[in-house]
Amino acid sequence: MKKFFKDTFNKGNFNDYFTRNKIFLIVSAILVILSLFTGFNKGISYTPVNNIILYQLSSMHISQNIALSPLSFFITDIFCVLYTICYGLSFSILSLFNILYYATTIGCLIKSNFTLIHIFESVILIFTFCASLLVTKMEVRIISLLLSGKTGEIKNKMRVPFKDLLMSLVIIIILLVITTIIYMII
Q1: pLDDT of 107-143, one tens digit each?
Q2: Do 68 and 46 touch, CB atoms closer than 8 A?
Q3: CA dihedral 106, 108, 111, 114 (to 10 degrees)
Q4: What's the DSSP call for residue 88?
């Protein structure tokens, strides 16, 4: 176990992570950027749900009577990230909808009140969708190995995607901590 974590969290694997997942990261970035752009350009008229969220958020910031504590902000974001990653078990279809929704909402928020938090949240969405795609990759490998009868190879075929999933989670948590610190400052 110690060797596994040492192999996972080192400079070489960190660089290899970006090489191995280049396609996933590019696809995730394109989806998030297009959704941000859509939310920004369509603004409040994008969906009725975004109207409600924007109204509630703007009233929270205007009145200052209701404010999320930094800990509740962090915990809420962690849960959103984790269930979006778990949606990777749906072949990332539900993750895609979730990411598009969040990115569009962030785009609307950027138009109404841009803060540095929105940049970090967008990057977190990119890594979250990449992690979801890694879950899908592992799911497809398991299914194909089970169907081919090569169950003995499952452990070997899961090692690298699992390391990448852990690396994604660590990157996301670091970004969430930075976002929470910025939230405390603002």
Answers
A1: 988 888 878 899 999 999 999 999 999 999 999 999 9
A2: no
A3: -20
A4: G
Whole-prediction pTM = 0.86
- Supply 165's token pair: 């999933």
Give the helix ranges, DSSP H, for the chain.
Answer: 2-8, 11-20, 22-42, 48-63, 70-86, 93-112, 116-148, 154-185
Q: How far apart are CA 85 and CA 160, in angstroms?
A: 17
Q: Are 24 and 134 a contacting pair, CB within 8 Å?
A: yes
Nearest C-alpha neighbor of 125 from the set 176, 91, 165, 182: 176
CA torsion sign for 78, 43, 104, 113 is negative
Closest-CA residue to 173 (of 67, 57, 53, 85): 85
- CA 57, chain centre distance (Å): 21
- Element containing residue 59 per DSSP (H, E): helix 48-63
E strand intervals along the chain: none
How many whole angstroms separate alpha carbon 104 and alpha carbon 118? 11
Query: From CA 82, how far away is CA 18, in angstroms rounded?
Result: 21
